[in-house]
Structures are given as structure tokens and as C-alpha cells.
Amino acid sequence: MAKTTFWDIIELTIKKVGTPLSAKEIWDKANEVGTLGDFRTTGKTPWASIAAYCYTDINRGGDTSMIIQTNERPAQFFLRELLGTVDLKKVQKQKDTEIAKEAEQKEKIEAKKFHERDLHCILSGFAFGDPHFKAHLKTIHHETSSKGSTGQNEWLHPDLVGIYFPFKDYKRETLEIQTHLTISSIKLFSFELKISLNFTNLRKCYFQAVSNSSWANEGYLVAIKIDEDTAFRDELRRLNNAFGIGIINLNTENIFESEILFPAHTRPAIDWDTVNRLANENSDFSDFLKFINEDCRLGRVKSEYDKVLSLEDLTKYVKDKGISIGL
Q: What is the rounded distance in angstroms from the CA atom of residue 283 to the CA atom of residue 141?
């Protein structure tokens, strides 16, 4: 008896459900309606393989392909032989409504469980230990900002800012000659932190990060739950290529397994006009600059940035706060 293949899963699942599905939905529904058969895989993202099978069939088959794509974002697939059996426009409208309601419901559930700010110490731990950053982070409390006219300071402040000091990576002689040459290995980071990222909130979140991170050497958009749909990841890549904001998938179960999905484009120069405005508008950011000045003067880190918890304490913190990626 032939073993179940990806093709079998795709065809049988779409036939049984009877509506266009994304690659992730095909996999999830296959588990739900029992069309997996004896299929086994060691891959962590089988839906990525399903998407590849669908795109390959569409590209090779053209007008005679078994699979057709009915929607782009998110990418959804259907069987050509089932065309005419459903009203695709009506189905898509219903799915869009369901997705919006589901996203809204998730946000309400997340708000009851924990808040975005509860994730700050997790990001601080990751940025401190990750070899790319080796950074000390500080939370920027938006409520401490000066109250300007409506919309004046919207999307001005990032959630956290970070500083990399080269004190441990360079000898004193190297740091001194950098000072004489008026150059520095210090690097400033900006982080916009969200609980989840999906097609529903991506553009708003991404351009919020673009707006409040343009002053730093590197700006990042961070979340603990990022949609794994292939088309969504392609959109993240496109935005990253165009605007340079990096994407970090923060792992709450093990911060050392967090992943920089797309690295930020490094800006060699700091936007000092924006830095000065941030310092004028927000006392936390002003303190951040004072910390940097003091630590640079001493040649060591002495200032009180956000506390970095031990792995044991961080694990307990995540449990106590009820933080989970199973959103």
C-alpha cells in the first residue's frame, strides 16, 4: 500500500474542507479531519513544504495545474477541478471576516493574560546574551513623555533602546585610538515589541517601528508569535529589504533559541536631531543618554539599565506571568 504523500494531504484535505486554504490551514485541517493517513515528517514546518508543492504545481502546470491560487495575502490554494462548486468571492469575504474576528479575539485574550511590557525583561535577556547585540537595554515609558498636541509624538518613541559597549571586546589602546580618530565602535539599537505579528497588524506595526527607529544604528520589530505562513514571511522579507527594520522572533520558553529572522540594515550614522528630540520629550531616553555618557567616561558599565534576569529567574518569571506562544 502506497504511503501518504504531501500531494495526498493537499488534495484530500481541500476536497474534504471544500474551500480555499492556506498552506498552514491545509496542514492544520489535515490533522483535524484525518487526512494525514500514515504520513510522517521530521520537519518543523511541514506547511512550508505544502506551499512549495502548491507553487511548484502552479508554476509548472500553468493553465492545467492541479492547484490554483485564489488569494495572495495570505496565500490560499484550491483544486482546479472544484472550480464552479463554490462562490470563491463569497468564501473569501467570509474568511476575511473570520480572520479579522479571530485576530480581535486573540488580542482580547492576550490582553487578559499578559501585557507587551511584560515581555521587556525577556528581550533584555536575549539582547544581553546574543552575540550580535551584547547590548544593555532600557525601557522607554511613553507615559513619561511630554504631552504635545494630538498626534505630535505618535510613533516617536520605541519600546526599548539598547547600547553596545566595546569595553570587553577591544583593548584599551584600541579604544583610545578610536577616540583620537573621532570614531567609535559603540552601537545604538531601537526595539518595537509586540505580542504577535500577522497580516492583520503587520503594516501598522512595521511602519511604527520604521517611524520610531530611524535614529538608531539598527532598528528591530520583535514579537513572540509570528505568523509562519509562507506568504507572510515573504512580505516580511520584502519590507526588510525596502525599509531595513529587522525582525526578531522572541522565544519565551528558551530565550537562547530566539531568532533574528531578518537582520536590520545597519546605519553607520546616528540621527542626532531625532536623538535630541527624544531626549527633550522623554525623561527615560534622557537618562539613557546620561548612562551612556557616564559609562563611556568610566570605561565600564556601571549604570542601571533594565535588569537582566538569570535563566532560572526568567523561566519562573515567564511562568508566573502566564506568558506563552500558544496564542
A: 9
